UniProtKB/TrEMBL annotation, chain A:
Pfam families documented for this protein: SBP_bac_8
Taxonomic superkingdom: Bacteria
Gene3D superfamilies: Periplasmic binding protein-like II (3.40.190.10)
Segments of this protein annotated with the region Disordered: 1-21
Organism encoding this protein: Brachybacterium phenoliresistens
Biased composition (Low complexity): 1-11
Protein name: ABC transporter substrate-binding protein
TM stretches of this protein: none
Automatic annotation (TrEMBL), chain B:
Domain ABC transmembrane type-1 as annotated: residue spans: 96-307
Any GO CC annotation of this UniProt entry: plasma membrane
Lineage: Bacteria, Bacillati, Actinomycetota, Actinomycetes, Micrococcales
Protein name: ABC transporter permease
Compositional bias segments (type: Low complexity): 1-14
Chief location bin: membrane
TM region positions: 40-65, 100-121, 133-153, 182-205, 234-254, 291-311
Amino acid sequence: MATIRPRTGIRPPAPPRGARPSRRSLLGIAAAGIALPPALSGCSYFTADTDPDALRFTFWGSPEEKDAVTSVMDMYTGTSGVTTVAEHIPGDYATKLNALVAGNIEPDAGYLPEAMAMRLGAAGRIDDLFAQGDRYPKLTGLMPSAVHQWTPGSGTMQSAVEVIMLYIDPEVCAAAGVAPPTRLDEAFDPDGFVAAADALTVDREGRHPSEAGFAPHSIERYGISGLSGTQSLYNLLHSNGCPVFDEAGTRSLFSTPEAVEVVTWVQELIHEHRVMPSPAQMQSVGGDAPGQLGSGRVAMVSTGQWELLNFTGTEMPYDVAVLPSFGQPAVMTYSGANAVFSSSPRLEETWELMNMLADPEVNPLFTNGLWMPVQEHCYRDEEFIARWTSGEVYPPGYREACIDATREAAIPSPHYSIRDYDRIDTQIGNILSSAWSGETPAREACAALDSQLEGLLQGRYEEAAL
Amino acid sequence: MSTTTTTPRAGAAAPAPPPPAPRRRRRSGVERLERRWGPLMIAPVVLGFLLFTVGPMIASAVIGLTDWSIGGTPRFVGVDNFVEILTADPYFPISLRRTFLYAIIAVPGSMLVAFGIAVLLNQDVRGKGVLRTIFYLPVLVPAVASAVLWMWIYNPDFGLANAVLRAVGLPTSLWVFGEGSAVPSIALMAVWACGNMALIFVAGLQGVPRSLYEAAEVDGAGAWYKLRHVTIPYLSPIILYNLITGMIAAFQVFDQAFVMTGGGPNNATLFYVLNIYYAAFRDGRLGYASALAWILFVIVVIITVITFRIAQRGVFYEGGRAR
């Protein structure tokens, strides 16, 4: 029998190399072990990294707004001893807050977009402002347009009052012989406004749109910008007697002659009178109001009073005026809500913080131009108004165009009262954009709005008389 | 491995040979290493897939059967969400149509351009490494940055796109600001960012044997015939891969519409995933959004299977169809 044996000299097989981890493998595992905890630490942001006893407040806004809110929260911590965490979420706020609420890790309180505040309030997730009675002095005597109910007698409040007005370059206006009015009863009528905007609009050769040879593709300065935004548009619609939606909140009124007149007028400002840039042309005009006025590309900008803050520290001349009007005085008030979540384990402290944030004597946002107070007396108390408007950022026209106009003609925005308003608002902006681009005649866009909103409008939140 | 054999003695009856022992192949060191460490190494991917893909999918399937508004309590409603989507939601058919339109323009457009670029990049020219990097760069541009860039290019008044059209005497367009031109404009952006597809095509082209081209040349084939009868058949599995992955990506188009148009003008760019996003995070309807997402999943699966079935017939696999 011949047996084949392993040849001499050949070593028996070495023990499998994988039997014991090599140094390299161990190093790799160690590296992974070191890298993993920091990578996963983000997952515990709302549990381990945050003091569980701290009062958390989320908000959006500019760096200036962040500093102001943080300063008020620090002040509250100083007076109450309650630890607070200011969580600034500059972008995609609603998405992130929705995710927090869905995960049941919402903050104690925070800013809330209007429709979201009402939806969460109706679902019982927001603590009722009205149940607080008179316990918090700065949360009483509020402007009716700044208080909103999701069921009769239960609701929330806006963090501020904000209105739309015209920012103007007074030197350019004076040179063109235009004097934008600051009083509601003297507001430009539609024709007067077109004439003023025409006088302020020039091409590179200095010609106005109404003059022969005007070059619409070489416009050096537009007379007006921003009137096609829905916030400005709603003011115009109300001034023409169109409340945008019917009493029940189930039907759009865009097809009414009043609404068609307004939408047509705005479309003509862009495409017929050539005094206002289309949304596409706005790209070349610049971002905020100081940018548009400062670059000399626009003479009048229709936007929110909150942009005053952006003029801080600029050397440029500016003033404010009221929007043009179709006859009826109307100043729609906007602003997100300041809401307390009912899940907060420290409701009393959170409402105390709300009280402090709403105090115009304490919160610098009320005196640096960003916000207007929510308390009604602030619009009548001359001493307070003098203190309020004493800052350098407030131009001469502010008292009449903003404070007096709001006191006289404030109306609430539909953002709160119409159910699921966010989707309605998206559709309105979406459909009107084809009118502003000139693709669709205004009348057709209005008709399309009525038909497309029909299925979306689910009525208004019921309100009790206050 | 050693083997033992016996030689039958002379004159002795030969006993029946024992059945051969099963031959066991000795594994190489690398193979053993892979067997031991492989599962550990792929564990992060598998765990990640289970935790962050399969888990959420199962959760979303369950949520899709509920009426869950963020802030409220989920309530089981069976298939009500699906019924509402298919029968009463005016934005479901719109978003589906717009997404299909986008896919029909973007996928073939990207594939054609990527293939053309790949053929050019496969030539033996100086600096082809740099050229490949340049063509791949758009893939690396963050979605928002690319959206901002294209908004400038598409500006109807002073944008580059209309400037080019004016220069050659063609009519200008409203691009993303126009109802009819918005989807093709966004599809054009996808074509611009086809570097990934091009890179895969380049890799495929490099695997085509030179001998086939030489044989074709001997037979008198020109460039077109070589492309048609050698390159394209050889690349057909890669074309199928790019088609499938491109289509799946096209059905998930979101960033451009979210950043540039918000779904407008007049819902022209209300793509399906944007519609899901709006349902979930604008309207707070998690159950409804999950149902929408599942319908999209089913649509993509159906289209993928159909594409596979149809395209397989024309795909050439070097080792035969069994591969």
